[in-house]
Amino acid sequence: MSRQDVTPEEIVAITASRMLADHKVVFAGVGTPLLAAALARRRQAPHLTIVLEGGIIGTRLMPGHLPISTNEMSAAHGAEMLTDVTDIFLFAQRGFFDYGFLGAAQIDKFGNINTSVIGSYAQPRVRLPGSGGANDIISLCNEVLIATVHEPRRFVEKVDFITSPGYLTGEKSREAAGLIFGRVSVVITDLALMDFEPHSRRLRLCAVQRGASVEQVEAATGFELLMADEIGEIDPPSEDELDTYRLLRDGEAAVRRGRAS
């Protein structure tokens, strides 16, 4: 399967799904994080527990009927427990969530995320959705994964507003700010996989997607990336991964129509 047959969003979600292990708990938002978590449950992590901010624990999701909000009852299909948002964040504070899963409108070299405004806060060029539960997820979950499309406008030297704190100004600044729980572990894009260099806490390139180059990643990044000693290559989405992903996203009928066309 060539890279042209797969969308950037599909590459991001499928790569991210591989990061989730079985018998863990993931706190996921709607969109790519939820699809990635649902795909992991269908493959290598059948006992992965998906938690949604609206109070839904253990959702199984109905293919083709994914929610656009964590408060929709369609998000509760097959759920093991329904509670309220207060309980969900209480569980996060107690360290019960292994993974947190976030997207980003802007991200900087220390993993700080902006989903609030583009431009100045007082007079923004673009007003974004804001934090929702994202600040709690990045501050409280044991391990946080960030998944987004790789573009220069997203990977910026300094975010216009810190909605969700990564490693702030690097080194031990996150701990100094009182954020002693959890860590931002990786950033997954349609071009690359990156982690954070342990001392400086700066973003570091670890691997590129099949068909992408280091130069392409650097050109799509608005700051200097650190480089791991060895840059690996990520396996492309398999046909089975892609079929399962599209089944979850579009439903059986849409997948059959796509195969027939």
UniProtKB/TrEMBL annotation:
Q: Extract one GO molecular function annotation from the record.
A: CoA-transferase activity
Keyword set for this entry? Transferase
Q: Which SMART domains match?
A: CoA_trans (SM00882)
- Tell whether Acetylation is among the UniProt keywords: no
Pfam families referenced in this protein's UniProt entry, alphabetically: CoA_trans (PF01144)
Q: Where is the signal peptide?
A: none
Q: Which family does it belong to?
A: Belongs to the 3-oxoacid CoA-transferase subunit B family.
Its name, as the record gives it, is Coenzyme A transferase
Q: Which organism is it from?
A: Acidothermus cellulolyticus (strain ATCC 43068 / DSM 8971 / 11B)
Upper lineage is: Bacteria, Bacillati, Actinomycetota, Actinomycetes, Acidothermales
